[in-house]
Write a structure and sequence with these properties.
Residues 1-28 are annotated as: Disordered. This is BTB domain-containing protein. Residues 28-131 form the BTB domain. By secondary structure, this protein is of the alpha+beta class. Among the domains are: 21-106, Potassium Channel Kv1.1, Chain A (2-Layer Sandwich); 206-313, no CATH class. The chain is built from 13 helices and 6 strands. The strands form 2 sheets. It has a 4-stranded mixed beta sheet. Strands 5-6 form a two-stranded antiparallel sheet. A hairpin with a 5-residue loop joins β1 and β2 (41-44). α6 runs antiparallel to α7 (156-166), α9 runs antiparallel to α12 (287-313) and α10 (249-264) runs antiparallel to α11. It binds zinc ion.
Amino acid sequence: MSTTSSVEPPERSLASSPEPRPPFPNTPFADIILRSSDGEEYRLCKATLAQASSVFADMFSLPQPDDASGVADEQKDGLPVLPLSEPAHQLDVLLRFCIPQMPPTLDDLATTVSVLEGARKYQIEWALDTARAALVRLADEEPLRVYAIACRYDLKDEAREATRRCLRVPMTSLIGAKVEELEGINAETFQRLLAYRQACASTVVDHISSASWAWINTGGWVWYHRCCGYSDDWVSRLNLAGTTVSCRKWWDDYMKDVVEKLRDCTWEGALSSCDAMAFFLRGNSCEGCRAVVAEHISQCRQTMKAEIVAAISSCSYIFVSDLQ
Ligand SMILES: [Zn+2]
């Protein structure tokens, strides 16, 4: 079986074309010029654009008998010119999702928002998915900004992720934050975040400081037993839940520190700034207890992390739209 069909580029000289803007190829198959609002031009294939964007697909399929291009009034080098309202720095990123090349990595919020807007406007699905994934990633560094952006664009999953990251930010920092993106949401939406932040802090602190630390109260932990070499590091006091706790003083001091840190930064990672062994060594440095203390601290920390995660999960963030 043989075929005689082949794909020939149209009769158009590349020599007359301007240098392409990387990474956009100067293809002889280009059949449209997209022009940015600031005058940059992109020579691309309508079929490729139409595959990536349903808006371009609809635009190019509109029957307009008076105009060979179907979409443009202006011609340049025999190609229709389609003026777009986005500036080149936005189109550069967005159009990379429309050509068969590696898409750009979205590692800053400004670019991500630009892609988000363009992807929604031109309905470029995978650019939208990429921008949404980038939002979640960037929430680690900029949780409040991502929260505001996600709420503004009604991206609930991403907004929820951002609320979880906001738990790591002290309440005072959230309230006092100077974040431009907050102007894009209403006061009630910001209040929802603060309410969630406060609910999580209360729930976690109440649980971790619950009566006699009920979540670890097996009684077998080393801090519930008097030290072999010291007898003056034993405390009995009312804990936050109003229950008398008897334990080694260093452990009591450590748990006070944990609770304070969790109040400020309500997530399991806050434990990394609380050094239980340092409290033990400060209180006494009994060599007889040291090994078992280290082991019990390690075990307890894992349990406490899981308890914190579970307590946070028990709190719901409620969108303003779900309240109505
Ligand atoms: Zn000891």
